[in-house]
Specification:
The chain is α/β, with parallel strands linked by helices. The protein has eight helices and ten strands. The longest helix is centred in the last third of the chain and has 15 residues.
């Protein structure tokens, strides 16, 4: 089974005359979890934002199944590094996108239950969102991104600043989600996390796609010197 086809064709993103990303060509159709890796400032977050259609390329095209990324964002969910929390219950936060889209109440209830279960937050549904721990807040953001049943989920370093127990809970949720019909793209600089989660890897450096391969090949026998140095902690 293939996932929605992500394509970057000759994509460049620049600001104030400075190239930030590209020129970049990539194509991904594989299911499961694609992990985006690279040193700080490599362009991981920018690539995710562009893939979601939040940033238009200065040159080239970004498409999902042939449709421009900025025209079909509703088919995807995005989890930012920092996500605002509404001053209401966990369930109230998660259901908000459904209310905004005028989803009928009976369907809304089932979608809410599904999202809370996927994020392992069912027992916290009536808890004030402001009282959540850092790890629970990340999973709340995950549930809110999943509640509309997106075909693709993009996450920007979702485990940043989490303790090991919270990271484990989040990764369990991601494994459960990727085991269904949702494709996941996840950025991280945590090599151990990539080993635990990744099916395939995009390695970015200085705004360029340096290497694209299956996770075992990349992590155990990288094809480029830049990737090898990165894995050794040199880059």
């Amino acid at each position: 089974m293939s996932a929605p086809h992500l394509r970057f064709d000759n994509v460049e993103i620049s600001a104030n005359g400075e190239a930030l990303l590209g020129p970049l060509n990539l194509s991904v159709t594989s299911p499961g979890i694609t992990v985006i890796m690279g040193p700080n400032g490599a362009g991981k977050s920018l690539l995710l934002s562009a893939a979601h259609g939040l940033i238009d390329p200065s040159f080239g095209t970004i498409t999902w199944d042939g449709v421009a990324a900025h025209t079909n964002r509703a088919a995807r969910g995005f989890v930012f590094q920092t996500t605002p929390i509404l001053r209401r219950s966990v369930a109230g936060n998660v259901v908000f996108p459904l209310i905004a889209q005028n989803i009928p109440r009976p369907k809304r209830r089932q979608l809410l239950e599904n999202a809370l279960e996927a994020a392992r937050l069912t027992d916290a549904a009536h808890k004030p969102a402001a009282a959540l721990s850092g790890g629970e807040r990340k999973r709340l953001a995950l549930a809110r991104a999943m509640v509309c049943e997106p075909k693709v989920l993009l996450l920007d370093e979702p485990a940043a600043n989490l303790d090991p127990a919270s990271t484990f809970e989040l990764e369990q949720s991601l494994r459960n989600i990727s085991g269904g019909s949702t494709k996941i793209y996840l950025s991280t600089h945590d090599i151990a996390q990539a080993r635990r989660l990744a099916d395939d890897i995009l390695f970015i450096d200085h705004g360029q796609l340096v290497e694209q391969s299956q996770a075992p090949e990349f992590l155990n026998a990288p094809a480029t010197k830049a990737a090898a140095n990165y894995l050794k902690g040199i880059l």
